[in-house]
Amino acid sequence: MRKLTSHDLRDLKLLKHYRIIRKWACKTCNLNDADLELLIYLEALDLFNKNDFKKGTYSYSWDNRRWNRLLKQGWIVVWRNRNRTTQKYHIYKVSTKCKQLISRMYRIMLGEEDMPTKLFENNSRYSFTVLQTAIKNVNKDKTR
Length: 144
Prior knowledge:
The protein is mainly alpha-helical. It has helices at 6-12, 18-29, 33-45, 50-56, 66-72, 96-110, 118-121, 126-140; strands spanning 47-48, 76-80, 91-94.
C-alpha cells in the first residue's frame, strides 16, 4: 500500500471548493462553522469521551452550550453509558445523520455528487443569492 503525499492530495483538488461546501452544509443543517468542523474532527476519532470533545474545542470560539446543543440536535449520541463501577464515563460517537452529512461533503468535494440549490431558490436575501450562485459555479466545475 502506497502512502499518500501532499502532491496526491493537491492533485485531487480536495480543498478547492471547501469553503462553499462548508457554507452549504452549515446553512442546510442549521450548524455554524465551528460546530461542523468539530463534528468532522470527532468523526475522525470514531469513539470519544467528553474530555476528547473539550480538547477538540480549543481551536474554536468559546461556546458554553455547544455540547448540549449537539447532543440535543442528534449530532452526537451515546455509544456506551457509564455504570459507576467498571465504566467511569460515557463514551460517545457521532450519529448516523452526522456521518451521512460528512460523507456527502466528501462526495461533493470529489465531484461525485452536486450540491442541491433548492433550499436557496425562494430566499431573496443577498447572502443566499450569492451562495446559490457560488453553488451553481461549483456544480458546473467538473474538474473538482
